[in-house]
Amino acid sequence: MATPAFTFTPSTFQKLHPAEFFRRFTTEGVRPDGRLLDAFRPTTVHHGVISTANGSAMVRIGGTTVVCGVKAEVAEPKLDAPDQGYLVPNVELSPMCSSKFRPGPPSEQAQAVSEAINRVLKESKVLDLKDLCIEEGKAVWVLYVDAVCVAYDGNIFDAALAAIMAALKNVRIRKPTYQEGTIKVSGGSTATDENSFTLNLARTPLSATFAIFDTTLTILADPNVTEETISDGQISIALDETGQLCGVTKIGASSCSQSVMRDCVQSAKKRTQQLRDIMNQQ
Amino acid sequence: MRDADPSTNEREFLLAALKDGARIDGRKFYDFRTLRLTFGAEYGAVEVQLGNTRVLAKVSCEVIRPYTDKPTEGFLMFNTELSPMASAAFEVGRQTDEEVLVSRLIEKAMRRSRALDTEGLCIVAGEKVWSIRVDIHFLDHDGNLVDAACIAAITALLHFRRPDVTVVGEDVTIHTLEQRNPVPLSIHHIPICTTFAFFNNGERMIVDPTFLEEQVKEGDMTVTLNVHKEVCALSKAGGIPMEIDQILQCTKIAVVKVAEITAQIQAALEADAKKR
Amino acid sequence: MSRLDRTRTSAHQLRPFFSSQNLLNRADGSAQFDFGESSVMCSVIGPAEVKLRDEKLDKATLEVVVRPLVGLPGIKDKAREQAIRETLEPLVLSGLHPRTGIQIVVQTMKDDGSILATAFNATILALLDAGIPLKSILGAVTCIVDSETNQILLDPTTQELANAKSTHTFVFDNKSSITSSPENKDQEEAVEVATLYSDSTGLFSEEEYFECAQICYKAVQAVHGFIRTAVQKKLEKEQQQIHS
């Protein structure tokens, strides 16, 4: 039998037929980077990486790195909520982290991720906004939470949410005094428990994201950027420390059965517990 | 996607018909298309249909801090972003020339003419004022977006009711709709735009051009008047030069049109008020 | 057991549907769908010219633009654009129209809650009106878990949404549902629902999530039926006009 006319090196084959190349791996139960289908990449969390911010953290999930900084500023409260401060989360995906992002206004992906995280923070009632009140109707704290991706290798949602939660836990704000229309914030000496306060987080939602690969109906945990490009959809599950769900999203790809969703929830429970241990260790 | 230019047949037929004294859709030269006004269940929402051109206007209000140099003035904002729904030629994020013209004409006709009393929007001088926002959504483009948008905007402002407010010293209470009936805005006059298109070397003037007529026109002019025969705005930006007599004749025609349309708007508002 | 929305008596009752197709002249297809006082209009232009940088060699490029009723489009609308586009990608037979673009514009006309579900339904009706080839239709519905009564309420109004402990939007196509045979004679035949799109926020348990899915699945059958009837009626009217 004659040898086939064309033979490809694995990297050439990957470029020509990415989905087929991938299928060869998943049918054996592994992925090109050596992981099993349900394995998450090694994750590290570092707290307080930005000394000039009120709170900060850096999270690495595989090759995706997100740095989050929280800055507290004094502002006037919104007229319909005079005793509440507010959170302004923002996820930034710039050309710095990957060449697939163009310079200019935020891409649809960045906006969608920012909105998803905003809803988790707001609707799971992570923080009681009344804690951010300084003087009702006059002054409240605004927390600008900026999660900047410095290296993009897929799964920005998990990394950004983890970075934001770790940064919020790390926040320390100087206690202000309100006198006759001016806010005085004591500066100088290091922040101690007496002259500053930390945020009282009601819960810490963390998430696990899975990619849906339609051709072989496989679910891959924690997709990297190549897996994200060829996959057809995504499932994200967010849980808090008590095991309550804080968010479930299934978007793209053909219909997923309930048993698939149940498996994802179970896998997410284990993963978020693992993430919590990593976060609390360091 | 750019709009395709009309075919030679369409263009020639339209111009020949105008020379002979007829318009393609059978209207007389100075007739508006059938105007239909539909009010939403909420105050301040109105959909205008001018022939096949459809425009939706929605008015909303918010309490904000006024500018420091104008402590007793409220705000009136218009948003006339054209979406690809009205026409594939409108792109997201990029303003076409037509879009710029439409938004500037609305600003001139509505805001600069002081149709809405912005001083009446003050709640507490220097601290709290009403900001009225009019969002104009273009749903279907069959010519004359300006007139339709103007009618939609002013009708929506007339239809709108803002929450009632009581000020006792420093305390401001904004009543909910259940507590007290909402209050109408104070509108001084009703500006209505009338757009003319010119053909046949400036000899033929028609009112309310359709999309095809707009594509073939030689020039255009928009006159904004109210029932008291006051000119609020007049815009003739480029196009074929017209004689002064013709311009004056256009304004005379516009006076009649504006009276008709204002009567129709007021009748519609009354009929809607009876229903509530 | 009374809802904040006094027009409905049951927790599992949807608001009255209303739809209208072929409303706009410029668009290739258009439709309006109402859930009670929530109304969304959708227009579809395509298959048409597409910008070179967005052109796909083997498929049509879907573009979705979402416009809110009040204010300039923000991140919420961008997230909705992504949701609608990603959900429609597997449904549209885009391989039949390679190197073209299908542009979908979604405009909120009236807002009384459950806007995303209303938008999904309006979009599928508009795609049908435009004659875009589809693998299946879809149907969407929203439900909430009320914070006081812990009841699952279908198709919430804005007032009811403000009182929600968790909000769930589900989209189902009209093809996939797996009926699993019961293990013992006592169990009912469970219908294992397959979701095309699912978005849930708030605080909820696993059981609540899957129960919401089941309830929404049953409700969406009514939406599918309505869509079918609406298209049928439209075609009958067109036939009449041709023959009269």
From TrEMBL, chain A:
GO terms for molecular function: mRNA 3'-UTR AU-rich region binding. Keywords: Cytoplasm, Exosome, Nucleus, RNA-binding, rRNA processing. Coiled coil: none annotated. Its main location: cytoplasm. InterPro entries: ExoRNase_PH_dom1, ExoRNase_PH_dom2, ExoRNase_PH_dom2_sf, Exosome_comp_Rrp42_subfam, PNPase/RNase_PH_dom_sf, Ribosomal_Su5_D2-typ_SF, Rrp43. Belongs to the RNase PH family. This is Ribosomal RNA-processing protein 43.
From TrEMBL, chain B:
It holds the Pfam family RNase_PH_C. The keyword Thylakoid does not apply. InterPro entries: ExoRNase_PH_dom1, ExoRNase_PH_dom2, ExoRNase_PH_dom2_sf, Exosome_comp_Rrp42_subfam, PNPase/RNase_PH_dom_sf, Ribosomal_Su5_D2-typ_SF, Rrp45. Keywords: Cytoplasm, Nucleus, RNA-binding. Residues 32-163, 189-255 form the Exoribonuclease phosphorolytic domain. Its main location: cytoplasm. It is found in: Cytoplasm; Nucleus. Belongs to the RNase PH family. This is Uncharacterized protein. It comes from Linnemannia gamsii.
Automatic annotation (TrEMBL), chain C:
It comes from the Eukaryota. CDD domains: RNase_PH_RRP46. Residues 13-133, 140-214 form the Exoribonuclease phosphorolytic domain. It is found in: Nucleus. Pfam families: RNase_PH, RNase_PH_C. Its main location: nucleus. Keywords: Exosome, Nucleus, rRNA processing. InterPro entries: ExoRNase_PH_dom1, ExoRNase_PH_dom2, ExoRNase_PH_dom2_sf, PNPase/RNase_PH_dom_sf, Ribosomal_Su5_D2-typ_SF, RNase_PH. The keyword rRNA processing applies. Belongs to the RNase PH family. This is Exosome component 5. It comes from Linnemannia gamsii.
